[in-house]
Structure formats: structure tokens, C-alpha cells
Amino acid sequence: MCGIMGYSGPRPPLPLLVSGLERLEYRGYDSSGVAFFNATGAIDVLRAAGKVSVLKERVGSLEGHPGAAIGHIRWATHGAATVENAHPHKSGPIALVHNGIIENEQILRERLKAEGVLFQSETDTEVLAHLIRLEYERSGEFAESVRRALALVEGSYALAILCQDEPADLIAVRQGPPLLLGMGEGESFVASDIPAFLHFTRQVYAFRSGEIGLIRHGDVRVGEISSPSSSWKSPVAQTISWDPFFAEKGTYRHFMEKEIFEGSRALMDTLADRIVPWKTLPELAPFGPFPPPSLTFVACGTSWHAALLGRYFMESMGIPSAVEIASEFRYRPLLLPGGSWVVGISQSGETADTLGALELARKAGCRTLGISNVPGSSLERETDLCLLTHAGPEIGVASTKAFQSQVALLMLLSLALSGAEPETEKLESLIRSPHRLEMFLETMSSERFDQAVERLRQSHLVMFAGRGLDYPLSLEGALKFKEITYRPADGYPGGELKHGPIALVEPGVTVIAPMVDSNLRQKEISNLREIRARGGYVLAIGPSIPENQRGIWYDDRIDLPEVPVWSGVFQAAAVLQYLAYRVAVALGNDVDQPRNLAKSVTVE
Ligand code: AGP
Questions:
Q1: Are 390 and 405 contacting, i.e. CB atoms less than 8 angstroms apart?
Q2: CA 47, CA 50: separation in Å to the nearest integer?
Q3: Which of 151, 373, 384, 537 is the most exposed place for a label (fewest CB within 10 A)?
Q4: What's phi and psi for 339, nearest 5 deg?
């Protein structure tokens, strides 16, 4: 939900701001803008509706004056995606960019109007610019005016702020949404996510909620928004191991395509050093005893689907577990006994509902465990223990490699929590999964999918159905499909079809059936026969699907290699991701930045 970038240092800021915004564009793409100092020492603002490419054209060969500068990409909440509503917003000597929502905006707006302030936009952000400007006119002190103004504000915000009278200074504030500081030699960056500045520095400090940073080139001090200035301290950076290559498309057309094919590497990096003789996940040891008295997963979207798979893994190891959609869980009475484990799964580690659900659990005396892909994320900081998936930065809005790494970590977690010696078969299957997936991805050529892609392109409805492990895979397949093709798609447990959804089946409807869970294959086949009997077209995805059954219970198939189920899950997921990708490309959609979506949902 919106992306912020700021810079203070000796380089001309505009080229690096624009390229940083391009890397943050997955967070929103309704409009964008930059504020920078010109040669006369005044702040100029350039804004554009639409994607960063439009802003880039407006910026042209302008470089901006070295010093401080800020930029923004917007996912509209208050006000349409117009130039007027684009950030930065400026009031007198103050210019700022904002990610978040100001909850008491209406009250503040009315108060400011009564003081004679004229508003230029419909955004809640503009209120902040005027408030800070008024405080600055009273105190003449930049940081103090920010603090005083924010004392009047309710809501969530990450901010980067400039002041015309302090051309080298950048103020960064975090109250809720993520904000990272990149610490270079004699220069500093702030951004909503690490890839924005990964090409310049890997030294990263994640602002805590409630912190304010005063940044002048390489000199950074951090304090509490609500405390007096005596509490300033120097931030301690952590080194991020991510390779800047991750943030580049390379030879691929889209980040999503690249990230699907990075699935095997994501698995390898996630599992590395976490399987030692007779033990899995050694970092979990201090969190014992195992198994926990009760275990509930909370997550949203794709991460919720990973959690649903996680429940099957846990149950196969004899560990009872529950799965909850975070946005529902957090507003229901919490009836878990103290000491229960609540496990939050989030690629970004910043999803507001998942963090809210964990906060509720913590307050109720539960132990909280996080599974996140982003080092330094809120999830990492706010849970008792956080396990990192090491998928590397995921730029495509549709989650792919992060899902694969979450699933691998959940397999590992189920083995670790059982407290027993890991079952050799499952452990071996997991150890071999990255290589097996790598081999499989090499066979996933585009021609192999042409027929299926054409069929799906022509289908007016696509349903995904599976049983056992194939049910969460079906949900995930359907989510991937609808978010980037914009075509109606839904996932169902195979056994549920005849309780209602089968009414949708007619010629022109395709049912995609992942079939890696061999235990339930015969039952799934019966469900698929019922689809075909009603004119539906069945595309089966699995190992050992006999050719002589074509026309009996399936119409077309995508073969998976004969591998143990735990390895098959990754291969089926890759096929579902790639099918959605190929259909979206065939439809001419913007797969990396699908309409209406943003990668990190940092507001409720
Ligand atoms: C995935 O393709 C989606 N874009 C979305 O459902 C995502 O998984 C969800 O918003 C949760 O994000 P998180 O994993 O960062 O918490």
C-alpha cells in the first residue's frame, strides 16, 4: 500500500529516486511523484497520475540538486488516482510523502480550514503537510514541528519529510507501516522496502513503530516521536544478505515469471542449515517443549493457503492445529488457553491483519511465532520467535517463490514440532525437493502449456478442485488465476462440488484438478467424472495419469514426475503459478502489477 523513498547525500537524487520507485512499484501504481531541491535552493515537486513510467518521462534528464529528496508511489485510499492527489504534498516550506491512513483526518481538515488553510487535494496526507507547516511557522525547528504536529494525529503513517530551510535534511517517521533505512558511506536512504536501495547498500536499519529519524547524508539519529530530543541515538544496522540481482528481471519478461523459476532456489535457501543429523530447525529449540499444547495459524491470501497446507503437514505428524484468516480471527472472541501457540505467516511481514491477530494473541497470553520472508519486518520484531523463509525479495504482486518457501518451512516445522525423530521418508523427500523442483522447472517449457493456456483463455469460468493437500493447492491456483487474469475462478474441495458449485458447470467451464495427494485420487476421479458428465472440461495435473483414461475422467493433462507427495506439492504449485502467468500474458495483462492490488496490505 504505497511506497516511499527518500535520499540524503551527495548524488543527484532524481535518477536514484525514480529507479527506487520502479522497484517499489509493486506496492501501488495509481500515481507517483518526487520532491527535490532545485539549483536555487527551492523545493520542486513533480507528480504524475499512473505508473512510474509516466513520472520518469516527466523527470526526463533532470537530476535534482544533491542533498535531500523524496519520492512516492501511491495505492489510492483517500481520493482518486489524480495528479492533485499524488504525493508529495507541499505546504509552504514543507514537503512530504506518506504511506498509511490518518484516521482523524476529517476533524483535522475542518480545524485547518477554520484556520484559513486551502486544500488542494482530497487526501488525508495533505492534512499532515499543513499541520507540520503551521508548527514550523511557530517553532522554526524542523524536527520539533514534526513531533508537535504528529501529536495531533491518529492513525498509521510512514513519512519522509523535507524542509525548504534544511536542504540536506530528511526526516523519516514510522508509526505502523514499514520504513527501512539504508546506511551508505556519507549517504542514507529511506524506503518502504529494501529492494529500493539494495544496489547502494546492504546495511539496513528497520525503524520501529513510534520512531523518528533525523538524516543528514551519512549522519543519522533516531529517537522516539513522543520523547524529547535528548533521547537521540545512532541506529545499529544489520547486513542483509540479499543479492541485488534478485531485484532485477534479468532475461525474464516479468518478475513473476522469474520468481516462479526461482522457486527451487527459494527452497534450497530456506532449508539450508536447518536440517542437521536427527534434527530439524535447530533455531526452534529454545522455544520448546514440543509439541505445543495447541497451535493456530493466522495469515491472509496466499500465506493463508500455505497455512492450510501446514495444517495437513502438522496432522500427518500427529499435531492438532487450526488455521484462521487473520482478518476474521482478530475480531472474534479469543478462546485459546494461555501458552497456546499462534503462528503468523506473512511474506512481507507487514500485513496489518496478520500483525493485528498476533498482537491480540500475545495480549491473551499466547506464544507467538512468525514466518516471514523479510528480515527486519514487523512480524520478525513483534513475535516471540520468527523463522525467516529465504526466498529473496519477491517483487511480483502475485506471490510465487515465497509461497514455495513457506510450504517448505511448514513441512520442516511439522517435523520439528512432532518431537519425534523425523520420519526418514518425509525428511528425505524434503531434502530432495529443491533439486526435484529445479529439474521439473527445466521441463516447464512454454510449448508444453500452449494447449492448456489456449483452453483457459477461452473458458468463461475456471474452477479448481482437489482433495487433501490438493484442496489448498486448488485455492492457491484459483487466487493466482483470478488476481492476474481478472477471470472468474474459484477453488473447492473436490467433495464439495456437488453441494452447490457443480451448478456452474456447463460447456465453456474448465476444471483444473491438481492431483498430487495419491490417498484420495480415486475419490477425486469420481468428482471429475461428474464434471465431465455435465459438459465441463477437466485439466488434470499430477503424476501417473494414464493416457487411456483421457476422455473418461479428464480431457487434458499436465504430467508431473513420480515423486513423493511432499515433493509433488511444489511441482503442482509451480504449474498452477505458471498456468496463471501464461494466461495473463496471453490476455495482455500487467502480471507484475495487476489492477487494484498492492503487494503489502499494510492497512486493514
Ligand atoms: C498473493 O498472490 C497475494 N497478492 C496476497 O494474497 C498476499 O498473499 C496477501 O496479501 C498476504 O501477504 P503477506 O504474505 O505479505 O502477508
A1: yes
A2: 10
A3: 151
A4: 90, -10
**Per the residue annotation, which of 2, 163, 300, 366 is the catalytic one?**
2
Mean pLDDT for the stretch of residues 481-495: 96
Q: 252-443, superfamily in CATH?
A: Glucose-6-phosphate isomerase like protein; domain 1 (3.40.50.10490)
Q: Determine how many CB atoms are found less than 10 A away from the CB of residue 344.
A: 32
- Half-sphere exposure (Cβ direction) of 508: Cα atoms closer than 13 Å: 6
pLDDT of residue 422: 67
The answer to whether 290 touches 418, Cβ cutoff 8 Å, is yes
Q: Is-contact 217 188, C-beta < 8 A?
A: yes
Crossing angle of helices 13-24 and 52-59, rounded to 10°? 170
- pTM exceeding the 0.90 threshold for the entire prediction: no
Q: Closest ligand 1 atom to the C-alpha of 402?
A: 14
Q: Which CATH superfamily is domain 3-243 in?
A: Aminohydrolase, N-terminal nucleophile (Ntn) domain (3.60.20.10)
∠ Cα 582 585 586 (to 5°): 85
Scanning the structure block, which residue is given the C-alpha cell 517435523?
Answer: 415
Of 26, 298, 325, 601, the residue with max ligand 1 atoms within 8 A of its CB, to mutate for a pocket test, comes to: 601
How many Å lie between the centroid of ligand 1 and the Cα of residue 379? 14
Distance (angstroms) between ligand 1 centre and the Cα of 599 equals 6
pLDDT digits (tens, 9 = 90+) for 203-222: 999 998 899 999 999 999 99
pLDDT of the residue at 424: 75
Look up the CATH architecture of domain 446-586.
3-Layer(aba) Sandwich (3.40)
